[in-house]
Specification:
Length: 703
C-alpha cells in the first residue's frame, strides 16, 4: 500500500517494508566520464523538484563508480580519488530517500575476458560474442560463474560498503542461447538435449532450453537476494523484469524474494499506442496483485537508433507517466549521463511526479479493480523466442485496444495462477488467443463457467496443451459450445462474416449485411444450443476483379453465443478477430469485440463514460470509496509518438456503479482540485467533468 506524502519522511527507512514508501523514483545511470564532470547539486535539486522519495543509482558491474577492491571489476578511469556513487547515496539519505544500487553484468572488458574465457557468451559457431554496439568488449554468459560467483562478490561488496535498501540488476538475463561448454554440459544434464539450433516455439529442444533458462535465472535471483540479506537483512535484490509479464520466472521464488516489481517499458517506439505503458503494468500485476509495481520511464526517445542522451517532448514524457498512474503504477524516470546538455525534460518530469504526489494520498489507499479480466497467455508466450513474442500477441493487442475504445475498465489475470478461485473475482474473462492451455487450466475455466462466470474467447484458444502438442479438438469445446471440423488455416483472403438475425452482438452495423472476416480461420459446428449472430461466408478469389463475388451462401459459425445453465454467457469467435482489428484497425471488428464483451457481461458495465474523445480508464477502490482515473488519449499522435501537445476534451459524463451496501457521501475531481455534485439513481452515481487536459481522477467517497 502506498503512503501519504506526510508519512514518507522517515517511515519505512531501513526496514523490511522500505519498498512501501518508495513511490517516486529517480534513476541516474552514470557514463564513464561523469565522475569528473557532473554536478551533484543539480541532481539534489532534481530529487527535490520531482518529490522523489527513492533513487536507483549506477554502482558496478560493467563499470564501477565506487572504489571497488575486487580484481577484474573495472573501475571508471575518471574516478580518481572520488566516490560518485557514495556521494549521491549520502545526499539521498539526507533527504530521507530510499536507495537502490544498480548493477549491470551483461558485458566485460577484454582483460576480464582473457583471464576468464568461461565468463564469455559464445555464438552458435562457438566464437566469443563480441558486444554488438561496443567492439572490444564481450557479452557475458548469464548462466555461468560470472554471475553466480564474480557478480555475487560485487553485489556483496556494494551492500557492505553503502547504506542501501536494495540492488537492481539490469541486463542480467543474458542475450539468447549461449553455446559455451558450461551451458552445453549443464543443459544436457538437465534435459538430455544438445543446445537448440532454432527458436521455434514448436521445437521441443527450444522449449526445454527455455524451461532450463527459467530455472537457472530464477535460481540466480534467489542466490543474489540471499547473499544481500546476509549483509543487510532488510534489503533485497530486485531483478529488472523488462516490459513483459513474469513468465520468465518460477513464481514461488518471485513471491519470496521480490517484494516490489518494476516494468522496464521506458517509452514508445515505432507504432505503439499511448496506453501500452499501463498494459505492461497490468501484466506484471496479473500474477502478484499484492505487490507495488513501478513504471520505468525514459526522458529520451526509445526508438531503435537509441539516442539515449537526448530528450523526449514534454507532453510525451508526462503522458507516459500518467498512463502508468492511471493503471496503478508508481512513477520512475531514468536519465542516462549525469551531465545534462539539454534540461527540457526536468519540468515535464517534475509536473508528472508532482501530480502523482498530489493524488497519492487518495489513490495510494486503493487497489485496482475491474469486473472484466483479460487472461494473460503466459503459458503460450513463454514458449516463444522473446524476440518473436509480439507475433503471438497480435490478437491480445486487438482486444486490448477495443476495450480501451469502449472505455471498459479491465485487469489482467495470468494463466500461471489461473484457478477457479482466482477467476471467481471477475464477472467476465477474455481469452483473445490463449493457444496453449493445460488440462488443469481448462478445468479451472470450466469450473468458473459452471459457477456462473462468463467468457469471450477467440481463434485457437485451448487447441494445444501447455507444451504445444495439438489437441484433436478444443480443450474448451464444451464451454464454447462448438467442435472443430476443420483445422486452423492461414493466409485466408477476402473473407467475410454475414449478419444473421437480430442480436445485441451484431447491433450497430446498420446498412451492412456482412463485415470483414479473418485472415486465419477454424472450421467449427455447434455441439450445444447456441445463437449465431454472424455466419461465415466461404472465402472467394480477390483477383481477377471479375471473379470477386461469393460462390456460396453464408454458412457455418462466424460468431457463437450462448447462455449457460449457471446464468453466465459465452461468446466464441473462430477466427483471428483481435489480430485483424489490431493490424488493420477495421472499425467493425472493434465494435464486434465491444458488443461481444458487453453482451457476455450480462449487465450494465460498472463504468460508463459519455462524451467525445479517446480515453484509457482505470478503476480503483477501497472500503472508503472508488476512484476512476481518466487518461486523455485524444491526440493525432496517440498511436505513434511523440506527442507535440495535449488537446483538452470535455465535457464528459461519468457514471459509476455503487457497490452493494455503499452510499455516496461526496464526489471530487482530484487533479483539478474541486468538489463536484453527484447524482445518484439506483446503484449508479453520475458526475460531470467539464474538461480534461492530460488526466482527471474522479473520487467517490462512501458514507
Amino acid at each position: 500500500m502506498l503512503m501519504t506524502e506526510d508519512s514518507l519522511s522517515t517511515a519505512g527507512l531501513r526496514t523490511p517494508e522500505w519498498y512501501k514508501s518508495a513511490t517516486r523514483w529517480t534513476q541516474l545511470t552514470f557514463v564513464e566520464d561523469d565522475p569528473q564532470r557532473y554536478d551533484p547539486e543539480f541532481w539534489v535539486d532534481v530529487f527535490k523538484r520531482t518529490k522523489s522519495n527513492a533513487i536507483c543509482l549506477s554502482a558496478g558491474g560493467y563499470i564501477a563508480y565506487y572504489p571497488s577492491e575486487i580484481p577484474l571489476h573495472y573501475v571508471s578511469k575518471f574516478i580518481g580519488d572520488s566516490d560518485p556513487f557514495g556521494r549521491l547515496v549520502d545526499e539521498a539519505r539526507k533527504l530521507n530517500m530510499h536507495v537502490m544500487a544498480r548493477v549491470d553484468p551483461h558485458a566485460i572488458h577484454a582483460d576480464a575476458a582473457e583471464a576468464h574465457p568461461e565468463w564469455v557468451s559464445l555464438t552458435v559457431d562457438r566464437k566469443p560474442r563480441e558486444h554488438w554496439a561496443m567492439p572490444g568488449i564481450y557479452v557475458t554468459c548469464a548462466y555461468s560463474s560470472y554471475n553466480f560467483d564474480f557478480m555475487t562478490k560485487v553485489i556483496v561488496e556494494i551492500a557492505e560498503k553503502y547504506d542501501i535498501d536494495a540492488l537492481f540488476g539490469n541486463r542480467w538475463q543474458g542475450h539468447g542461447v549461449c553455446y559455451c561448454k558450461a551451458c552445453e554440459d549443464n543443459f544436457r544434464a538437465a534435459s538430455g538435449f544438445d543446445l537448440p539450433e532454432t527458436t521455434s516455439a514448436s521445437d521441443p529442444v527450444w522449449q526445454a532450453w527455455a524451461a532450463w533458462r527459467r530455472t537457472t535465472l530464477t535460481r540466480l535471483v534467489a542466490h543474489w537476494d540471499t547473499e544481500v540479506k546476509k549483509v543487510k537483512p532488510h534489503a533485497s535484490f530486485i531483478p529488472n523484469m523488462s516490459g513483459s509479464s513474469l513468465m520468465e520466472f518460477d513464481l514461488s521464488v518471485i513471491k519470496k524474494h521480490c517484494p516490489i516489481l518494476f516494468v522496464d517499458h521506458q517509452g514508445r517506439r515505432n507504432v505503439e499506442p499511448a496506453w501500452s505503458a499501463g498494459r505492461n503494468g497490468k501484466r506484471i500485476r496479473a500474477t502478484f496483485r499484492d505487490r507495488p509495481v513501478g513504471l520505468i520511464t525514459s526522458i529520451g526517445p526509445e526508438e531503435i537508433p537509441r539516442w539515449k542522451d537526448s530528450v523526449q517532448t514534454g507532453p510525451e514524457i508526462e503522458q507516459w507517466v500518467h498512463a502508468g498512474i492511471t493503471q496503478g503504477l508508481f512513477p520512475w524516470f531514468t536519465k542516462f549521463n549525469a551531465c545534462v546538455p539539454d534540461d527540457r525534460w526536468v519540468q515535464p518530469t517534475a509536473n508528472a511526479f508532482n501530480l502523482h504526489a498530489k493524488i497519492e494520498p487518495v489513490l495510494g489507499e486503493m487497489s485496482p479493480t475491474a469486473e472484466i479480466a483479460v487472461i494473460d497467455p503466459a503459458t503460450t508466450l513463454r514458449n516463444w523466442d522473446p524476440d518473436k513474442r509480439h507475433l503471438a500477441e497480435l490478437n491480445d493487442m486487438g482486444f486490448y485496444h477495443a476495450l480501451v475504445e469502449a472505455r471498459l475498465p479491465f485487469e489482467f489475470l495470468s494463466d500461471q495462477i489461473m484457478t477457479a478461485e482466482t477467476l471467481s473475482a471477475y464477472k467476465l474473462i477474455i481469452l483473445a488467443n490463449a493457444t496453449y492451455l493445460s488440462d488443469e487450466q481448462c478445468a479451472a475455466i470450466r469450473a468458473y463457467v459452471a459457477a456462473g462466470g462468463s467468457v469471450v474467447a477467440a481463434h485457437q484458444t485451448s487447441l494445444f496443451d501447455e507444451k504445444g502438442a495439438a489437441r484433436p479438438d478444443f480443450g474448451l469445446a464444451d464451454v464454447f459450445g462448438v467442435t472443430m471440423t476443420a483445422p486452423p488455416r492461414g493466409n485466408v483472403r477476402n473473407s467475410y462474416v454475414a449478419i444473421n438475425g437480430d442480436h445485441p452482438i451484431n447491433a450497430g452495423f446498420a446498412g451492412a449485411t456482412r463485415i470483414i472476416g479473418g485472415t486465419e480461420d477454424i472450421g467449427v459446428e455447434p455441439i450445444a444450443g447456441l445463437e449465431q449472430p454472424f455466419l461465415k461466408i466461404p472465402d472467394f478469389p480477390d483477383l481477377p476483379m471479375e471473379e470477386v463475388y461469393p460462390r456460396l451462401a453464408p454458412q457455418g459459425v462466424g460468431v457463437a453465443a450462448r447462455e449457460t445453465k449457471a446464468g453466465g454467457r459465452v461468446v466464441y469467435i473462430p477466427w483471428n478477430i483481435g489480430e485483424v482489428f489490431w493490424t488493420y484497425m477495421a472499425a467493425d471488428q472493434g465494435l464486434l469485440i465491444a458488443n461481444a464483451v458487453k453482451w457476455a457481461l450480462g449487465k450494465e458495465p460498472e463504468v460508463r463514460v459519455s462524451g467525445k474523445g479517446v480515453l484509457d480508464v482505470g478503476l480503483h477502490q477501497s472500503e472508503n470509496g472508488r476512484v476512476l482515473c481518466l487518461l486523455n488519449l485524444t491526440n493525432p499522435m496517440m498511436m505513434k509518438g511523440p506527442l507535440r501537445d495535449t488537446w483538452p476534451i470535455g465535457p464528459l459524463t461519468v457514471d459509476i456503479e455503487i457497490p452493494l451496501g455503499k452510499k455516496v457521501k461526496s464526489a471530487s475531481l482530484l487533479v483539478s482540485g474541486q468538489n463536484v455534485s453527484v447524482h445518484v439513481e439506483g446503484n449508479r452515481a453520475t458526475v460531470e467533468v467539464s474538461e480534461i487536459e492530460t488526466m482527471e481522477v474522479v473520487h467517490l467517497r462512501w458514507e
